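User: Could you go from structure to sequence for me? I need the amino acid at each position, not a summary. Structure tokens:
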């Protein structure tokens, strides 16, 4: 089984504000590095999807959901 990379260009639209580690540029550079090193062939590329409430409840309190 190959390691998985969850990726979509839509991830670059997220902006958590200045200084947050999940910066769109950082994500883009990381994805570009994976491609330039040709690591894609050693990964299973997955598209993200929105979790349903039952899945969210596995890791969050009901009041948060």
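Assistant: Here is the amino acid at each position, in order:
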């Amino acid at each position: 089984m190959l390691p998985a990379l969850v990726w979509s260009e839509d991830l670059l639209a997220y902006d958590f504000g200045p200084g947050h580690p999940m910066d769109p540029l950082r994500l883009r550079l990381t994805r570009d590095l994976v491609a330039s090193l040709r690591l894609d062939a050693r990964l299973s590329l997955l598209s993200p999807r929105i979790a349903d409430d039952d899945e969210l409840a596995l890791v969050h309190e009901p009041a948060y959901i």
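One structural detail worth keeping in mind: The chain has one domain: 4-57.
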